[in-house]
Specification:
The chain is α/β, with parallel strands linked by helices and about 675 residues long. It is about 40% helix and about 20% strand. Strand 4 and strand 5 form a beta hairpin. The chain binds adenosine-5'-diphosphate and magnesium ion. The site of magnesium ion has 4 residues, from helix 10.
């Protein structure tokens, strides 16, 4: 249960004065729904205003606040601005310029002959002094020398958000201290409530900001440390494989150094009584599946069962086939179970699983439904980990009598700080070496204006017996428009290449998707037009060209994953990134980086730098709560200390019963990491 002390903060946002349904709507767009959300909606910058009585040349370039009286209004000429001439108390004149239809608004706020307090950056325009789009500071009380700037949505102003934040801060209780005293002293951090009040009063207050960021990172690490401690203290079962299955496994190649090292790490973990919690990070194509297969063989050699969870139906079936192929000739029974399997097929699989006749079960979430009983689940592999959150991981672990060993795999090479933030409870192995013989993928950036040339190149590629993916743009607004774009593209390409063009998208029935994928994998289709459903794991070695439309809309990590669909076979592969005709500097830099490197870990670090952690940690990608207070830079600085302290606290006070432990519980609730607290009770 949430500590009562937090109740005022967890009240609905409408508890704040002045927030009715009309204001709740724009606030909701910013995900501000509770009082605490407003308190944690921190200003991202500020304006320093200088109060002046008089317009002065010397202030050009400064943001000033001054009382001016409008003397006349010039209507807009063509696309030019509406210009209001306004005088200070001594008769010095400045032009206030309003562009783009803001003129009517200006006339209302600056009636001729009435003094108004205005503020903005003083510029020179020809001979005149000018302020473009000044703020009208209604009444003296609206003036602040330093004014906070908040992230906004339509219908909200920074001033409004600031007033709400002050109310929220007013409701904030003093909280017991959860930060380790010497750490707090060393940084000179204020108390929590102080920090909150200070940051809204002065967005430049670095100590206050850093303390709040630390709180958030600490709560995050504490939740993970609880998961880790909970897993660790439960006795799992040591899995000592005798090697009999691996000895007869005939691989057409030898393991890479990274694979061999990782397999050894996993074997070491599996031999322990406390369950393994290991994350395997490896770029697309680095050979994670084989590592997983070897780990599962250890479990089977030790007499247990292994389950492998895939994020999509397509991937589950593909993994099933790969495993059957890899393990052909071994006395190992591999089965696949997805939500699509119904009736007698499903019943038969469930019976065999309960009887222990199935050694390895591959599937989607369906393999962890209540009706699914394992005889002896010893190892769980979760592929494409980023789709599953901590909460899900905990739920899955609860399935087994003794907690199974867990191997999580992700092809999203995330930066080290984010690995800690997202998988702080795990040990990490990295496959940082590609299997030999891969040619790097050649990446080119082309303007979408040159679509004809792209289609021509695709034609040549098909004529040479190649296959290609064509990825349609990510459309933010809805899955529907996503789909429309893909359907239109498929139709357009069919005019050139007829029935050799197939289509897969997220709204197709799983069976239809499988048919299209199978047709592509079997070579009956030459071009597969797709939305991002092909993002993870799909393996068609003969596909050596990928075209990605509107590449500038994708995150770099995602582009990198998409690109990894090619370059899986022999011969050179090409990735064509199509870009819109206008590009921001950042987009340009990002696409240039894609062209320059195939190194996923480097791309990840850069992506973080260019976009910020908020987006990377968004609910969509990680399944975790996004970070609201800690920027990537702050996280890089604070997260290691937070992890150390969280683990230390739990080592000393596993139940979080002591004074600091109780305070730390409050922090978990405050940052919506309270799933961790549930573990305390179950233990
Ligand atoms: P990912 O890490 O993206 O899941 P996969 O496991 O699908 O990568 O492996 C990519 C390809 O590399 C597969 O075709 C696989 O058979 C091959 N492969 C894996 N390990 C090796 C190795 N040690 N030597 C050569 N090829 C390998
Ligand atoms: Mg894979």
């Amino acid at each position: 249960m949430r500590p009562d002390i937090l109740n005022p903060l967890f009240a609905e946002i409408t508890a704040l004065k002045g927030v009715g349904p009309a204001l709740a709507r724009p606030l909701d767009r910013l995900k501000l729904r509770r009082v605490v959300d407003v308190a944690f909606h921190l200003p991202t910058g500020w304006i320093d205003r200088v109060a002046r009585d008089e317009l002065m040349e010397a202030d050009v370039g400064r943001t000033i606040a001054i009382t001016l009286t409008a003397t006349d209004v010039r209507a807009a000429a063509g696309r030019g601005p509406v210009r209001v001439h306004a005088a200070d108390a001594r008769g010095n004149i400045a032009t206030l310029a309003f562009f783009g239809g803001q003129g009517g608004w200006a006339k209302k706020l600056l009636p001729i002959g009435e003094p108004r307090r205005v503020s903005g950056r003083l510029d020179r325009y020809g001979q005149d002094l000018q302020i473009v789009h000044p703020d009208i500071l209604d009444g003296e009380d609206g003036f602040r020398e330093r004014e906070a700037i908040y992230p906004l949505s339509e219908g909200l102003s920074s001033r409004r958000l600031h007033a709400l934040a002050e109310q929220a801060v007013g409701r904030a209780p003093a909280l017991p201290e959860w930060i380790e005293p010497s750490l707090k002293a060393r940084h000179g951090w204020p108390d929590w409530r102080d920090a909150l009040a200070r940051i809204h009063a002065d967005p430049a207050d670095a100590k206050a900001r850093q303390r709040l960021a630390y709180d958030e990172v600490f709560a995050n690490q504490l939740a993970m440390a609880l998961v880790r401690a909970d897993t660790r203290k439960r006795r799992g079962r040591p899995l000592a494989g005798d090697g009999r299955l691996r000895a007869v496994l005939a691989l057409p190649y030898s393991l890479t150094g990274a694979q061999a090292r990782t397999v050894a790490e996993i074997e070491g973990d599996l031999a322990q009584a406390s369950p393994m919690l290991r994350l395997l990070q490896g770029d697309v194509g680095s050979g994670k599946t084989l590592v997983a297969a070897l780990a599962m063989l250890v479990a089977v050699e030790a007499g247990g069962q292994a389950a492998m969870l895939a994020p999509t139906e397509i991937l589950a079936r593909q993994h099933g086939e790969t495993l059957r192929r890899t393990l052909a000739g071994l006395p190992v029974e591999v089965a696949v179970l997805t939500g699509r399997d119904k009736g007698s097929v499903r019943e038969a699989t469930l019976m065999a699983l309960a009887a222990g006749e199935i050694d390895i079960l591959v599937g989607t979430h369906a393999i962890f439904q209540d009706a699914v009983r394992y005889r002896d689940l010893a190892l769980m592999v979760v592929d494409e980990q980023h789709r599953f959150g901590v909460a899900e991981r905990m739920m899955l672990a609860a399935k087994a009598k003794a907690p199974p060993h867990l191997l999580a795999m992700t092809a999203t090479p995330i930066p080290r700080t984010l690995t800690l933030a997202n998988y702080g409870e795990m040990d990490v192995s990295r496959l940082d070496e590609m299997p030999p013989g891969r040619e790097p993928i050649e990446t080119r950036v082309m303007s979408e204006d040159r679509l004809d040339a792209v289609v021509e190149a695709l034609g040549r590629h098909l004529a040479d017996g190649g296959q290609a993916y064509w990825v349609c743009p990510l459309v933010e607004e809805s899955e529907k428009s996503d789909l429309a774009a893909a359907e239109m593209r498929a139709e357009a390409l069919r005019r050139h290449f007829g029935e050799r063009v197939g289509l897969v998208h997220g709204r197709m029935k799983p069976a239809e998707k499988d048919v299209a994928m199978a047709a592509f994998a079997g070579g009956r289709l030459g071009v597969l037009v797709a939305t991002t459903v092909i993002e993870v794991g799909v393996d068609v070695p003969n596909a050596r060209l990928i075209v990605i439309e509107h590449a500038d809309r994708f995150g770099l990590a995602q582009l990198h994953q998409l690109r990894g669909r090619v370059g899986r076979g022999l011969g050179r592969s090409i990735c064509l990134l199509l870009r819109g005709s206008t590009l921001s500097e950042t987009s340009r830099a990002r696409l240039a980086l894609m062209r320059e490197t195939n190194d996923g870990f480097r791309i990840a670090e850069e992506d973080l730098r260019l976009r910020g952690a908020g987006e990377m940690l968004g609910t969509r990608q990680s399944g975790e709560m996004a970070f609201r207070l800690a920027t990537p830079e702050m996280m890089a600085e604070l997260i290691a200390a937070a992890q150390d302290d969280a683990r230390l606290l739990i080592d000393r006070d596993g139940g979080l019963e002591g004074a600091r432990g109780q305070a730390a519980r409050v922090a978990l609730y405050l940052f919506d990491r309270d799933a961790g607290v549930q573990l305390l009770r179950s233990g």
